[in-house]
Amino acid sequence: MLILLPAVFVLVALLILPLANIALESIRLFVPGHVGAASDAPYTLQNYTELLRPAYLRYFLDTFRISLIASMLALSVGYPIAYYLVRRAGPRLRRIWITGLVALIFLSILVRVYAVALTFGPTGFGTEIAAVLDISPNGGTYLEIMIIAGLMHFLVPMAALSLIATIQNINPRLFEAALALGAARTVAYLTVMLPLSARGILAAFMLCYTFCISAFVIPMVLGKGRVLFVSNLIYSRYGEVGDYPGGAAISIVMLILSVLLVYVVTQAAGSRWEKV
Amino acid sequence: MGPSLTRRTFLLSTAAAGIATGTSLHPSPLSAAPTPLVGIDWGGPLIAATKKITEGDKNVEITWELHTGGAGTVLPKIKSAWPHPKYDIVAAWNPVFITMINEGWLEPLSEKEMPNLADIPQQLLFKDKAGQIVNVPRSLAGMFWGYREDTAPVKLERIEQLLDPKLKRQICWPGPNINSNLQLLSLALAHGGNEQNMEPGWEMLKQLAKSGNIGRVAHTETEFINSMTTGETSVAFWNMSPWKNVSKNFQVKVLTRVDGDKGLKTFLYQDGWVVLKSSEQKQAAKEYLNFFVSPENNQSFNEMLGQAPTNSKAKATGFAENIAFTKDELQKYAYLPDFDALAVQLDASVKRFETEVVPLLG
């Protein structure tokens, strides 16, 4: 047990105490014109009841929806990359690819975001792409596509790198056996490879999804103030109007929803795998 | 044996020579290392101009930080670190001064310590609860509507024209936390409202959001400048320095003198400096700010920005002529907002914008 003490200390000091502080702040009354709640401010649930308005529900749904789309797309791009690197690529090519993927993770977030903004914005190919998609280059749908593109910049390397280990651990003879027994390649992929890598896919998905729902700079720059993530609302409360209690309430709700989501998904997947 | 030159006799004789010639030991760059200060200012042209002026003061060495958006973003940074925030001096404007006074963060200033304050009109000076001066105004500026003449599909002359379908996605709307929401006040004034009754403004803003004419909600000067210069939008409400920046490369029409429209006003404000009570270098900070608002520095600083000087001995030139109103023009085109009333509405305005306007932007 003693071996756990440093970890417990760090966890309490850096996670539990700040979270308790945020939870306490979230039930304080905020007086406009000040910064944060006064130390003797009365307790209230007003900061939470405000979030029951339909518009706020929409922000939460938008954040979860766009994050889901970006994560699924990242997995569908990252999985073939990982599969190719493990099963097909030669050692030299594999090294180049992996170096490239790792380098992408280290690239500055601002460089990536502004690269997307300039490439797909009014000075780039925005007008042409929007014309192909038959949408307005400055409309809400196009902005969501830009945000998803910005998120995928981060997610694809993350997903591919985390799936490499999963695919590497699958015995290739199982796939070959399916082919030898007469299964078409696509069927063999879908019935052998995918189920065997399901746990790794789920782990990669959770990694991508948690990154997306807490993304801040990407929706702030690419959303043009018209598509907002919950993280942008939290920043606005804390950083721009000094409404700490309001920001704390949104943070606590987001935390609870995120933990619930992770719990439900892992429980559902776990019970399914137990049956199998 | 002749008199020996000790350190004490050297200092005494040098001081005596200084008195005799009317010079002081203190400001000599050779006599003391510059005092380190930490300051925060807006980015873009403002920090460039500030640094240019600061080059002339060898007594301080300032580490600069930039506001991450509106000046209000500095408030939580100070609050979370109080009583030991890292800043000695902060550049801000009317509504932020009000909040800082409410929090009791500002160091009192006086004409005795800062003689150049005597040349600044009393109306521009903010006072704390004890009636002491707490700010050093550096610029008089205005916020107003304007458009790029080469790209705007409508020549704006009435505020109602903002709803013109030709302006689809062409308006760069400042976020509600920016400019103290004066952009909303301009809509409210046009429809009979004011700072105490912003409802008519909200109604028009919702129509504007529904119309699809808002192309971007900008939260920083840089976003505004990028949006206007890339041609993403062509009509906006912003303040002088960024407008001047856009006008360097594009033909810009600023609507500072519009007849017959109650909303297309020039909203006057000041920006300036404050010294935080927590600063350990108060004296050096005050001397630096006194230097900053001397007639020549104040004029030079504002010439670079296209804003009007606050020192009565300095002159308004160039872009600042857009707001160099005569007494009659001041009555007709300018508007002095009630920032106290706007400051207390800010939190509610941000929430209202999130719940009632953003969902309509599409």
What's the arrangement of secondary structure elements?
The complex is a heterodimer of chains A (276) and B (362).
Chain A: H1 5-25, H2 46-49, H3 54-88, H4 91-106, H5 109-120, H6 126-133, H7 140-168, H8 172-180, H9 185-196, H10 198-213, H11 217-222, H12 230-240, H13 244-275
Helix pairs in contact in A: 1-13, 3-7, 3-10, 4-7, 5-7, 7-10, 8-9, 10-13, 12-13
Chain B: H1 7-21, E1 35-41, H2 45-54, E2 60-66, H3 74-81, E3 89-93, H4 94-103, E4 135-148, E5 171-174, H5 182-190, H6 199-211, E6 214-218, H7 221-229, E7 235-239, H8 240-247, E8 252-254, E9 266-275, H9 282-292, H10 295-305, E10 308-309, H11 327-333, E11 334-335, H12 339-361
Parallel strand pairs in B: 1-2, 1-3, 5-6, 5-7, 9-11
Antiparallel strand pairs in B: 3-9, 4-7, 4-8, 4-9, 4-10
Helix pairs in contact in B: 2-10, 4-12, 5-6, 6-12, 7-8
Task: Provide the descriptors you would attach to this structure in a database record.
heterodimer, A: 276 residues, mainly alpha, MetI-like fold, 13 helices, globular, B: 362 residues, alpha/beta, eleven-stranded mixed β-sheet, disordered N terminus
Task: Provide a brief overview of the structure.
Chain A is mainly alpha-helical.
Question: What's the number of extended β-strand segments of chain A?
Answer: 0
Average predicted local confidence, pLDDT of chain A: 91
**Beta-strand residue fraction of chain B:** 15-25%
Give helix and strand order of chain A, one letter per element, not per position. HHHHHHHHHHHHH
What is the residue-averaged pLDDT of chain B?
A: 88
Query: What is the succession of H and E elements of chain B?
Result: HEHEHEHEEHHEHEHEEHHEHEH
What is the quaternary state of this protein? heterodimer
Helix residue percentage of chain A: over 70%
Uncertain residue segments of chain B = 1-29
The CATH class label of one domain in chain A is Mainly Alpha
CATH topology of one domain in chain A: MetI-like fold
Shape of chain A: globular
Distance between the termini of chain B: 93 Å
User: Percent range for helical residues of chain B?
Assistant: 25-40%
CATH architecture field of one domain in chain A: Orthogonal Bundle
CA radius of gyration of chain B: 23 Å
Q: Can you count the beta strands of chain B?
A: 11
- CATH homologous superfamily label of one domain in chain A: MetI-like
Shape of chain B: globular
Which ranges of chain A are low-confidence, i.e. pLDDT below 50, for 5 or more consecutive residues?
A: none
Most extensive interface:
A-B, 35 and 41 residues
